[in-house]
Amino acid sequence: MKKLLAEFFGTYWLVFGGCGSALFAAGIPDLGIGFAGVALAFGLTVLTMAYAVGHISGGHFNPAVSIGLWVGGRFSGKELLPYIVSQCIGAILAAGTLYLILSGNENFAIDSNQAGAFASNGFDSFSPQGYSMFSAFIAEFVLTLFFLLVILGATDKLANGKFAGLAIGLALTLIHLISIPITNTSVNPARSLSQALFVGGTPLSQVWLFWVAPILGAIVGAAIYKNLLQKNK
Protein backbone atom coordinates (compact mmCIF):
# COMPACT_ATOMS: atom_id res chain seq x y z
CA MET A 1 0.00 0.00 0.00
CA LYS A 2 2.85 2.42 0.78
CA LYS A 3 4.28 1.85 -2.68
CA LEU A 4 0.93 2.58 -4.30
CA LEU A 5 0.46 5.71 -2.21
CA ALA A 6 3.93 6.88 -3.21
CA GLU A 7 3.05 6.41 -6.88
CA PHE A 8 -0.27 8.19 -6.33
CA PHE A 9 1.32 11.23 -4.70
CA GLY A 10 4.23 11.31 -7.12
CA THR A 11 1.98 11.28 -10.18
CA TYR A 12 -0.38 13.79 -8.58
CA TRP A 13 2.54 16.17 -8.05
CA LEU A 14 3.79 15.65 -11.61
CA VAL A 15 0.43 16.58 -13.13
CA PHE A 16 -0.37 19.34 -10.65
CA GLY A 17 3.07 20.92 -10.93
CA GLY A 18 3.71 20.39 -14.63
CA CYS A 19 0.26 21.00 -16.07
CA GLY A 20 -0.43 23.60 -13.40
CA SER A 21 2.57 25.64 -14.49
CA ALA A 22 1.27 25.53 -18.06
CA LEU A 23 -2.24 26.58 -17.04
CA PHE A 24 -1.44 29.22 -14.44
CA ALA A 25 1.95 30.70 -15.31
CA ALA A 26 2.99 30.06 -18.90
CA GLY A 27 0.95 32.67 -20.75
CA ILE A 28 0.99 35.71 -18.48
CA PRO A 29 2.11 38.67 -20.64
CA ASP A 30 5.68 39.83 -19.91
CA LEU A 31 5.90 37.74 -16.72
CA GLY A 32 4.92 34.26 -17.94
CA ILE A 33 7.32 31.35 -17.73
CA GLY A 34 6.73 30.16 -21.32
CA PHE A 35 7.65 26.76 -22.77
CA ALA A 36 11.03 26.69 -21.02
CA GLY A 37 9.45 27.29 -17.64
CA VAL A 38 6.87 24.56 -18.16
CA ALA A 39 9.61 22.15 -19.24
CA LEU A 40 11.57 22.95 -16.09
CA ALA A 41 8.46 22.54 -13.94
CA PHE A 42 7.83 19.02 -15.23
CA GLY A 43 11.46 18.11 -14.62
CA LEU A 44 11.32 19.52 -11.10
CA THR A 45 8.22 17.51 -10.21
CA VAL A 46 9.97 14.26 -11.04
CA LEU A 47 13.25 15.32 -9.45
CA THR A 48 11.63 16.34 -6.16
CA MET A 49 9.37 13.30 -5.85
CA ALA A 50 12.16 10.93 -6.89
CA TYR A 51 14.06 12.00 -3.79
CA ALA A 52 10.92 12.25 -1.64
CA VAL A 53 9.31 8.87 -2.34
CA GLY A 54 11.55 7.13 -4.86
CA HIS A 55 13.01 4.98 -2.10
CA ILE A 56 9.50 3.73 -1.33
CA SER A 57 8.11 2.83 -4.76
CA GLY A 58 10.98 3.30 -7.18
CA GLY A 59 9.57 6.64 -8.36
CA HIS A 60 7.87 5.65 -11.61
CA PHE A 61 4.95 8.14 -11.73
CA ASN A 62 4.25 7.01 -15.29
CA PRO A 63 2.62 3.83 -16.69
CA ALA A 64 5.09 3.72 -19.58
CA VAL A 65 8.00 3.83 -17.16
CA SER A 66 6.52 1.02 -15.07
CA ILE A 67 6.06 -1.13 -18.17
CA GLY A 68 9.57 -0.32 -19.36
CA LEU A 69 11.11 -1.21 -16.01
CA TRP A 70 9.21 -4.50 -16.06
CA VAL A 71 10.56 -5.28 -19.54
CA GLY A 72 14.02 -4.29 -18.33
CA GLY A 73 13.84 -6.76 -15.46
CA ARG A 74 13.74 -4.08 -12.76
CA PHE A 75 10.11 -4.44 -11.71
CA SER A 76 7.73 -7.25 -10.80
CA GLY A 77 4.90 -7.98 -13.21
CA LYS A 78 2.46 -8.65 -10.39
CA GLU A 79 2.79 -5.02 -9.27
CA LEU A 80 2.35 -3.55 -12.74
CA LEU A 81 -1.43 -3.11 -12.84
CA PRO A 82 -1.74 -1.70 -9.28
CA TYR A 83 1.01 0.82 -10.07
CA ILE A 84 -0.70 1.94 -13.29
CA VAL A 85 -4.07 2.30 -11.54
CA SER A 86 -2.50 4.36 -8.74
CA GLN A 87 -0.71 6.58 -11.25
CA CYS A 88 -3.88 7.20 -13.25
CA ILE A 89 -5.92 8.00 -10.13
CA GLY A 90 -3.26 10.43 -8.94
CA ALA A 91 -3.14 12.14 -12.32
CA ILE A 92 -6.93 12.43 -12.62
CA LEU A 93 -7.33 13.84 -9.10
CA ALA A 94 -4.57 16.36 -9.81
CA ALA A 95 -6.38 17.43 -12.97
CA GLY A 96 -9.55 17.74 -10.92
CA THR A 97 -7.75 19.97 -8.43
CA LEU A 98 -6.48 22.16 -11.26
CA TYR A 99 -10.02 22.39 -12.62
CA LEU A 100 -11.40 23.46 -9.23
CA ILE A 101 -8.78 26.18 -8.87
CA LEU A 102 -9.31 27.46 -12.40
CA SER A 103 -13.06 27.52 -11.83
CA GLY A 104 -12.45 30.33 -9.38
CA ASN A 105 -11.56 32.59 -12.32
CA GLU A 106 -14.68 34.03 -13.94
CA ASN A 107 -13.01 33.92 -17.35
CA PHE A 108 -12.16 30.23 -17.17
CA ALA A 109 -13.61 27.92 -19.80
CA ILE A 110 -12.23 24.86 -21.56
CA ASP A 111 -12.40 25.19 -25.33
CA SER A 112 -12.33 21.60 -26.59
CA ASN A 113 -11.62 22.89 -30.10
CA GLN A 114 -8.36 24.60 -29.11
CA ALA A 115 -4.95 22.93 -29.28
CA GLY A 116 -3.49 22.40 -25.83
CA ALA A 117 -6.74 23.18 -24.02
CA PHE A 118 -6.35 22.43 -20.28
CA ALA A 119 -2.75 21.34 -21.03
CA SER A 120 -4.00 18.44 -23.15
CA ASN A 121 -1.94 16.62 -25.76
CA GLY A 122 -2.80 16.34 -29.43
CA PHE A 123 -1.78 16.08 -33.06
CA ASP A 124 -2.85 17.57 -36.41
CA SER A 125 -4.88 20.70 -35.62
CA PHE A 126 -4.62 19.86 -31.90
CA SER A 127 -0.82 19.97 -31.96
CA PRO A 128 0.48 23.33 -30.66
CA GLN A 129 2.32 23.85 -33.97
CA GLY A 130 0.19 21.67 -36.25
CA TYR A 131 2.32 18.50 -36.36
CA SER A 132 0.80 15.39 -37.91
CA MET A 133 -0.16 12.13 -36.20
CA PHE A 134 2.96 10.51 -37.69
CA SER A 135 5.23 13.25 -36.33
CA ALA A 136 3.56 13.07 -32.93
CA PHE A 137 3.92 9.28 -32.78
CA ILE A 138 7.61 9.36 -33.71
CA ALA A 139 8.36 12.13 -31.20
CA GLU A 140 6.57 10.40 -28.33
CA PHE A 141 8.11 7.03 -29.21
CA VAL A 142 11.71 8.26 -29.50
CA LEU A 143 11.59 10.53 -26.47
CA THR A 144 10.14 7.83 -24.22
CA LEU A 145 12.71 5.37 -25.54
CA PHE A 146 15.53 7.67 -24.48
CA PHE A 147 13.80 8.46 -21.20
CA LEU A 148 13.95 4.75 -20.35
CA LEU A 149 17.62 4.59 -21.35
CA VAL A 150 18.32 7.44 -18.93
CA ILE A 151 16.23 5.90 -16.15
CA LEU A 152 17.75 2.43 -16.48
CA GLY A 153 21.26 3.78 -16.82
CA ALA A 154 21.01 6.26 -13.96
CA THR A 155 19.56 3.63 -11.62
CA ASP A 156 21.93 0.83 -12.66
CA LYS A 157 23.72 -0.82 -9.76
CA LEU A 158 27.01 0.30 -11.32
CA ALA A 159 25.91 3.95 -11.59
CA ASN A 160 26.11 6.63 -8.92
CA GLY A 161 22.58 6.29 -7.57
CA LYS A 162 22.75 9.52 -5.56
CA PHE A 163 22.40 11.50 -8.76
CA ALA A 164 19.72 9.34 -10.42
CA GLY A 165 16.87 11.70 -9.54
CA LEU A 166 18.77 14.66 -10.94
CA ALA A 167 19.56 12.90 -14.22
CA ILE A 168 15.97 11.72 -14.65
CA GLY A 169 14.49 15.12 -13.81
CA LEU A 170 16.80 16.89 -16.25
CA ALA A 171 16.01 14.30 -18.93
CA LEU A 172 12.31 15.05 -18.56
CA THR A 173 13.04 18.78 -18.77
CA LEU A 174 14.94 18.23 -22.03
CA ILE A 175 12.13 16.06 -23.39
CA HIS A 176 9.65 18.89 -22.80
CA LEU A 177 11.97 21.49 -24.32
CA ILE A 178 11.99 19.40 -27.49
CA SER A 179 8.39 18.35 -27.78
CA ILE A 180 6.02 20.90 -26.25
CA PRO A 181 5.55 22.48 -29.71
CA ILE A 182 4.89 19.05 -31.24
CA THR A 183 2.39 17.36 -28.91
CA ASN A 184 2.40 19.52 -25.77
CA THR A 185 4.55 16.61 -24.50
CA SER A 186 3.20 13.45 -23.00
CA VAL A 187 5.71 10.56 -22.65
CA ASN A 188 3.30 9.68 -19.83
CA PRO A 189 -0.08 8.04 -20.52
CA ALA A 190 -1.52 8.96 -17.09
CA ARG A 191 -0.71 12.64 -17.61
CA SER A 192 -2.38 12.59 -21.04
CA LEU A 193 -5.48 10.76 -19.86
CA SER A 194 -6.07 13.05 -16.90
CA GLN A 195 -6.19 16.22 -18.98
CA ALA A 196 -8.12 14.69 -21.89
CA LEU A 197 -10.90 13.50 -19.58
CA PHE A 198 -11.67 17.09 -18.61
CA VAL A 199 -11.46 18.43 -22.16
CA GLY A 200 -13.35 15.68 -23.97
CA GLY A 201 -13.89 15.96 -27.72
CA THR A 202 -10.97 15.44 -30.06
CA PRO A 203 -8.24 15.50 -27.36
CA LEU A 204 -9.95 12.56 -25.66
CA SER A 205 -10.33 10.70 -28.96
CA GLN A 206 -6.62 11.23 -29.66
CA VAL A 207 -5.41 10.07 -26.25
CA TRP A 208 -4.80 6.55 -27.61
CA LEU A 209 -1.61 7.79 -29.30
CA PHE A 210 -0.30 9.06 -25.99
CA TRP A 211 -0.70 5.60 -24.52
CA VAL A 212 0.53 3.55 -27.46
CA ALA A 213 3.60 5.56 -28.53
CA PRO A 214 5.10 6.07 -25.03
CA ILE A 215 4.50 2.46 -24.03
CA LEU A 216 6.08 1.12 -27.22
CA GLY A 217 8.99 3.54 -26.82
CA ALA A 218 9.47 2.41 -23.22
CA ILE A 219 9.45 -1.26 -24.22
CA VAL A 220 12.03 -0.73 -26.96
CA GLY A 221 14.21 1.48 -24.76
CA ALA A 222 14.17 -1.08 -21.96
CA ALA A 223 14.98 -3.91 -24.36
CA ILE A 224 17.90 -1.96 -25.82
CA TYR A 225 19.36 -1.21 -22.40
CA LYS A 226 18.87 -4.71 -21.05
CA ASN A 227 20.26 -6.55 -24.07
CA LEU A 228 22.82 -4.15 -25.54
CA LEU A 229 24.04 -1.77 -22.83
CA GLN A 230 23.66 -3.35 -19.41
CA LYS A 231 26.69 -5.00 -17.90
CA ASN A 232 25.84 -8.32 -16.31
CA LYS A 233 28.77 -8.35 -13.92
From TrEMBL:
InterPro entries: Aquaporin-like (IPR023271), Aquaporin_transptr (IPR034294), MIP (IPR000425), MIP_CS (IPR022357). It is a multi-pass membrane protein. The keyword rRNA-binding does not apply. Keywords: Membrane, Transmembrane, Transmembrane helix, Transport. The chain crosses the membrane at residues 12-28, 34-53, 80-102, 131-151, 163-187, 207-225. It is found in: Membrane. Pfam families: MIP. The keyword tRNA-binding does not apply. SUPFAM superfamilies: Aquaporin-like. PANTHER family: AQUAPORIN NIP1-1-RELATED, AQUAPORIN NIP2-1. Belongs to the MIP/aquaporin (TC 1.A.8) family. This is Aquaporin Z.
